[in-house]
Write a structure and sequence with these properties.
Layout (H helix, E strand, L loop, with lengths): L1 H42 L16 E4 L4 E4 L1 E5 L5 E5 H10 L18 E5 L41 H11 L11 E3 L8 E4 L3 H8 L11 H15 L1 H6 L4 E4 L10 H4 L3 E4 L16 E2 L21 E6 L9 H10 L5 E4 L7 H10 L1 E7 L8 H7 L3 E5 L18 E2 L2 H4 L4 H7 L3 H14 L14 H23 L24
Parallel strand pairs: 5-6, 5-7, 7-8, 8-9, 9-10, 11-12, 11-13, 13-14, 14-15
Antiparallel strand pairs: 1-2, 3-4
Helix pairs in contact: 4-5
Length: about 500
């Protein structure tokens, strides 16, 4: 009897033990699942949204003209070289929705909030806004852009005005309530900066002060300013520290820095093309190509179609040019008799801009032919007019081409092919309505990359230029660091050998 009781008790204990284990493992499993649920909920997988080609994470803001509303945005890396920018409100809602949308190609991510930290020299106003007639007051060399922004000359001066827009963007980055897209911010400590910005309005200086006046016996004001700039920069500790390799200089007009460029070449130049620069002074690996500011206004509410644009091919401008521009003359004689081609001389004088606007907006294709230099503002006027560009310029370099595929909205024809009999006109006629419509629609998608404005907005020309500069910074830092390898090397102890100093302009 006792043995039966013991056996029964043992069996009961086994059942209890088994139930306890099952309960224990069940509780552990539930806790494990709940912990993962709370982890996922706290991190909040963000809802994907589209943004324009952006190389890194940044801080954005919106501005409605009367108030500024800051919207901090984060970045989550995607596969390859993409990044997805998201609004902070969408992050909170993402755990419930989790409905991904497509992302843009050409992005990469960084963990900090700003793409580019820029140290800007407080150059005397004679180098920048003083050229616009603005007078400095007190100790500040900058206008208070919260109350006044000096006007910039119109006409063809505007096409090379990028120095004006980039400087305004940096000044705005210091104003808390100002609207700013935030690709670049100004920092006051040069050791914290990714790049050193030289705010010399070189294109304006060339356009306004390169011709001598009666008071200037030998040197023009433009030449004097370039000499003074070289003297100023080479005396700065920032320049001495790097030999200028981490400096950014604007020389968008092809003739704007011809006197100073030989002494400032270690810096990164922002140029329109390399037509006036030898390759050892400026090249696509070191420097940045920026768009012209288009003179023709953007075509808003464009409902035109392939059939509603009667002109097949449009060109209006200087026909007889030197250097690579000889092709203009040859094409003129090849195309002038074609009934649906407009090819004539034109300028900005009188109503030239109005005629060009009307002509481009009523044309399917617009010729962009090399002139005295490989590039011209005509390409960006065509983009603003949704007129598919036909580029005939073998040496042209294009803005942000490392992230933007121009073949999606431009036609490229080599000079050799373009001047072969009827090759060009037959090629253009072979492009049908569907292909043209696809390219025109792509023009509408990308045209904001070429818009200069203040305040600057996400994905406009100002932000795209800063991003192009940011993509140069890693290679710039690599070269700078490599050049410093032997700065502190001790004298050689080997007989007959001496240490060789590294020159200050070593690249």
């Amino acid at each position: 009897m006792a043995e039966r009781d013991v056996s029964s008790s043992s069996s009961s204990l086994k059942v209890v033990s088994r139930k306890s284990l099952i309960l224990f493992f069940t509780m552990i499993s539930v806790l494990f699942i709940m912990s993962w649920f709370f982890v996922l909920r706290s991190t909040g997988r963000p809802h994907f949204i589209d943004h324009n080609l952006l190389p890194n994470s940044k801080l954005f803001s919106t501005f409605d003209g009367s108030k500024s509303q800051m919207q901090t945005q984060n970045v989550e890396s995607s596969f390859g070289n993409r990044a997805i920018l998201v609004d902070s409100k969408e992050v909170e809602e993402s755990s419930e929705k989790e409905k991904p949308e497509k992302s843009d190609v050409g992005k990469c991510s960084r963990n900090d909030k700003v793409v580019l930290k820029v140290f800007m020299y407080d150059l005397p106003s004679e180098f920048h806004f003083g050229l616009l007639g603005w007078k400095a007051s007190g100790n500040s060399v900058w206008p208070d852009i919260r109350t006044v922004i000096p006007g910039y000359p119109g006409g063809l001066n505007l096409q090379h005005s990028i120095e004006f827009w980039l400087t305004l963007d940096l000044l705005a980055s210091e104003i808390t309530q100002a609207s700013k897209a935030g690709t670049a911010i100004r920092v006051r400590n040069s050791s914290e900066a990714d790049i050193i910005f030289v705010p010399f309005f070189s294109s304006l200086s060339y356009n306004q002060y390169s011709k001598p006046n009666p008071q200037e016996k030998k040197k023009t004001r433009n030449k004097i300013l370039q000499e003074n700039l070289v003297k100023y920069l080479t005396e700065q500790e920032e320049w001495k520290r790097s030999g200028g390799k981490d400096h950014l200089i604007l020389a968008h007009h092809p003739n704007s820095m011809l006197d100073a460029r030989m002494k400032l070449w270690p810096a990164t130049f922002i140029l329109s093309d390399f037509g006036r620069y030898p390759s050892n002074i400026a090249n696509v690996e070191k420097d940045v190509i920026a768009p012209y500011k288009h003179i023709i206004s953007s075509y808003v509410n464009d409902d035109s179609t392939f059939d509603s644009r009667p002109t097949l091919l449009y060109f209006q401008g200087a026909i007889y040019r030197k250097d690579g521009g000889y092709v203009r003359q040859e094409l003129y004689y090849l195309l002038k008799e074609e009934k649906d081609v407009h090819f004539s001389f034109g300028s900005v004088q009188k109503d030239g801009i109005k005629k060009a606007t009307e002509g481009m907006r009523s044309s399917k294709f617009c010729l962009n032919i090399a002139g005295d230099t490989p590039s011209s503002n005509r390409l960006f006027d065509a983009i603003a007019s949704h007129c598919v560009p036909v580029i005939i310029s073998d040496e042209i370099e294009l803005p942000y081409e490392d992230v933007l595929d121009y073949s999606e909205f431009c036609i490229f024809v080599t000079t050799r092919d373009a001047i072969k009999g009827n090759y060009l006109i037959n090629f253009i006629r072979s492009i049908g309505k569907d292909e043209w419509t696809r390219m025109r629609n792509k023009l509408k998608e990308v045209k904001h990359f070429f818009e200069f404005q203040f305040p600057s907005k996400e994905g406009d020309a100002v932000q795209m230029i800063w991003q192009a500069v940011a993509r140069k910074v890693p290679a710039m830092k690599l070269k700078l660091n490599r050049s410093r390898r032997f700065y502190r090397s001790p004298p050689s102890t080997e007989k007959g050998l001496k240490s060789i100093p590294v020159p200050s302009n070593f690249w």
